[in-house]
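Researcher: Here's the sequence for the chain we discussed earlier.
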Amino acid sequence: MEFLNDLWQFLKVRKKWWLAPVILTLILIGALLFFSSGSALSPFIYSLF
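Model: Thanks. This is the structure I predict for it:
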C-alpha cells in the first residue's frame, strides 16, 4: 500500500494526471489475467495478447 500512496503523491505533486488512465488500464489488464488464469476462458484471453 505504501507504493500506491507514493504513486498517488507523485501524480498529485507533479501534475501527471495523464498517467492515471495508463496505470489504471495496466492494473485492470493484470487483474483480468490473474483472475482468469484458472478458468476455461484463459486460452481465449491469452490469445488477445
